[in-house]
């Protein structure tokens, strides 16, 4: 329903009204045109047939080639109009009036018997004798009143050397009845048809436009918090224009909803980033400030300043790690709704070897037995840098939380499952659910280096690659992190063990 600027609705401006109005209007114009053509055609045909009949009647009288009026008296007297048929077929008219008139005296020379009894008709024929003479005769209407109208042919006729007027007439009442009835029929029929067609059109257009009304109602209820997956249930006639409209709008709604979700997710990740960053950076900044204030509180040895600056660099490094870790998570959060495909095939076997090599020195330093159990090449689709970061985090943790003399093993199966197992301090069963939370660190780990973001980032990377990262652990016995990724092109080869 249309609404003007004042908010008032105008049903006359509605599509339904306009469609019905134009449809009925065009139909009415066509029906009126057709009625006029029909009426004109019938009227013309009736007149033409009557005229042809009158002409043939006049010709049959003239055919006797009369020299005097008396020659025609008998012929005219024989035309009582009662004979119903001729050799050419049935007569058109029951009654034919015929008379021959002297042009000089305007007196009737011969009159058919049926005219004799109707002086009013004769009187009506008289004025026609003043019509301009024409060889083919003159057709006209005449009659004493509406009911007794006649179609008359007045034609000049040669009578030897003299001439005369021959008038042949037939009653027109039957034809005018036909025309009148046709006019009544059209007069009543056309508006009835228009009314019925208009009502039918109104109902049909209303039913056709019904889904649009529903779309408008649904669309008015939409807001960012209650955005449906689809605006309307798909119409049964999905191949109609309205069906296409519903399909298109539903697709648009789905796209909009996704865009909203991405937007919301993005806003949430930004908020979270800001909240996490301000919370986590406050402590190192306070420490930094405290150390510097202390150093500046009185003059000190150069060595003290150096130690303070070295400590400051450590804190700054820690803060950089937090900021870059949070930045990574915020980017991942924002991109979660539209994950980018990873076109690159990454060899997990190579990646494990690289991480193993990187950890070797640290393991040797802590006197930890580092080992690797791996198949030949196992491929996954992914980002090699992110997967490297993930494995490196797991390896670093294993070394960090394992005491001197313990062991750490990296293992890869042909199904693209990587496990990092250590014999370290383990994680309490109650803590296991939090292990992947941002900034969560077990109390005992607080003393050691770290921000508590490593595992959150690792889990995120696993998920964005369509995989999982799980943990199983027993306190004081050890921990196993299991990374499972969707494998591509898996070669089933024997495993090799490398121990260092
Ligand atoms: P960083 O962000 O530098 O990695 P972090 O190692 O403390 O710091 P995470 O890697 O996220 O942070 O680990 C979170 C916590 O989980 C650790 O602080 C530790 O308490 C516990 N943890 C992780 N890996 C192990 C492990 N292999 N054995 C025992 N505890 C672990
Ligand atoms: Mg860590």
Concise overview:
The chain contains 10 helices and 16 strands. By secondary structure, it is an alpha+beta fold. The strands form 4 sheets. A 6-stranded mixed β-sheet has the order 13-14-12-11-9-16. Strands 4-3-7-6-5 form a 5-stranded antiparallel β-sheet. A 3-stranded antiparallel β-sheet has the order 8-10-15.
The CA-CA distance between the termini, in Å, is 80 Å
Spans of at least 5 consecutive residues whose pLDDT stays below 50 are 1-8, 82-86, 491-500
Q: Mean of the pLDDT scores?
A: 84
- Strand-residue proportion: 15-25%
Number of helices: 10
Number of strands: 16
The largest sheet, given as strand count, sense and whether it forms a barrel, is: 6 strands, mixed
Structural class: alpha+beta
Strand arrangement in the largest pleated sheet = 13-14-12-11-9-16
**Could you state the order of secondary-structure elements as H and E?**
HHEEEEHHEEEHHHEHEEHEEHEEEE
Number of domains: 3
| Fraction of residues in helix | 40-55%
What small ligands are held by the chains?
adenosine-5'-triphosphate, magnesium ion
Radius of gyration from CA coordinates: 55 Å
